[in-house]
Write a structure and sequence with these properties.
This protein is mainly alpha-helical and 169 residues long. It is built from 6 helices and no strands. The chain has one domain. It comes from Sphingomonas glacialis.
Length: 169
């Protein structure tokens, strides 16, 4: 059990707390490096899921320029063309900012719908940029989109738990 901080106790060092969202996005992107044997590739883009999870649950946790370096790292480890995640992730965060300006209040279902659109947008455009049109990957891509959308509540739960730990310290 943690002791509550008294009114005259020193403020704990919070310098590491601001890096937790970025570190979790980097770890999510690095999960694609894990050696897996799969006959049907449906590994979701965990870096994108973590980025959306942090942005939708705690908007002030990531700066508006954060998708650029995080997307660059994701492009390096995922094998996508360089700049792919950088552009699409930035466009997704701009879209979410535009929705935040228009909508006064969002609940979990609206966040899930916004994240579903962002996931489908990034994966579909990434497919058209990275592979030829004649490639027959549409079934695997639709399954990957469905798995990613269904995993989003788990990612939101992870982000919420990590942000609650941050506030406890």
């Amino acid at each position: 059990m943690r002791q509550a901080r008294g009114p005259f106790d020193e403020v704990p060092d919070q310098s590491f707390r601001r890096f937790v969202p970025a570190i979790t996005v980097v770890i999510g992107s690095a999960l694609t490096l894990w050696p897996m044997i799969a006959s049907f590739p449906v590994l979701p883009p965990f870096g994108l899921l973590m980025l959306l999870g942090w942005r939708l649950t705690k908007p002030e946790s990531l700066r508006i320029w954060a998708p650029l370096p995080l997307g660059f790292f994701d492009d390096l480890v995922s094998g996508q063309p360089l700049g792919n995640a950088m552009l699409f992730w930035t466009l997704c965060l701009f879209m979410i900012d535009l929705i935040d300006q228009r909508v006064v209040y969002r609940d979990f279902w609206q966040d899930w719908l916004i994240a579903s659109g962002a996931i489908a947008f990034c994966l579909l455009l990434g497919r058209y940029v990275a592979s030829p049109i004649s490639a027959h990957v549409d079934t695997a891509l639709m399954l990957q989109i469905a798995v990613s959308i269904l995993l989003f509540p788990l990612v939101v739960r992870i982000c919420t738990l990590l942000s609650d730990e941050e506030e406890d310290t």
